[in-house]
Amino acid sequence: MQEGTLRVGEWHPDAEGAPWLLVHGVTASHLAWAWVARETDARLIAPDLRGRGRSTASSRRTGLAQHSDDLAAVLDARGVDRAVVVGHSMGAFVSAVFADRHPDRVERVVLVDGGLPLDLPVGMDPREAVRYVLGPTAARLDMRFESVAAYRDFWRAHPAFVGREDALLDDYFAYDLAGVEPALRPATTFATLEADSIDQNTGDAIAGALERMPRPTRLLAAERGVRGEDPPLYPDLPSIKTSHPRLRSATRVESVDHYSIVMSPEGARAVVEEVRRDGGQ
């Protein structure tokens, strides 16, 4: 049965060398990588994960294994055998599972402020953990907005975006909306976010992937968290490296938060530098 399609963004399609497969976060889209596209000439392939952006593939089929198999299908459709895989936030968890399920399709992996277990309060219900980590980012999914401008203003008040005026941000947030005025809504539903987040935090696929880690893998961690706060999502990098000995490195990126580690010139340059460390373009 035909279940829809995945929308795929691509930059520099004629570039030589291994493409980079870019995997966005839990409520994001391929446009989260527009800043990275400005900092490299490598071929970049960035899908909207199912249930996000303009992808029409059923959001009823969720979980990291499903998303990772979707990534293999994206590479097949683009005629790509192997790629450097870069994942941000939930996309980093997807990237780790993809490398485990399809290691022959992966050169190496860069996890960007995600992909490794988060330090959650002991005994917290997995559903509560979604709101604990994402806060207003999750709550907005049930909101409606009268215009694109109103949605942009919502994000201007977010601590991670205060004072940031950027045409790429304008494009990113406009693309995030579905429906029609005056009842625009975020393209991702809370049910989709919740299902994927629970699998991210409690599922078997990520646990096995991180234990095996079959492809060279590095972590980039932001200095600040989802709301620009301290502590960040990953406050103790030496402990992470000890707990995951197969991880090649764990590096802190100063002066960025969970969003701007990819969605800013400074963060994008750090990501590109990390990918190039092992011989990428």
UniProtKB/TrEMBL annotation:
Domain AB hydrolase-1, by residue range, is: 21-133
Q: Does the keyword Hydrolase apply?
A: yes
Supply the SUPFAM superfamilies for this chain. alpha/beta-Hydrolases (SSF53474)
Q: Which UniProt keywords apply?
A: Hydrolase
Q: Record keywords: Cell membrane included?
A: no
Superkingdom of origin: Bacteria
Q: Which GO terms describe its molecular function?
A: hydrolase activity
Signal peptide as annotated in the record: none
State the protein's name: Alpha/beta fold hydrolase
Which species is the source of this protein?
A: Microbacterium phycohabitans
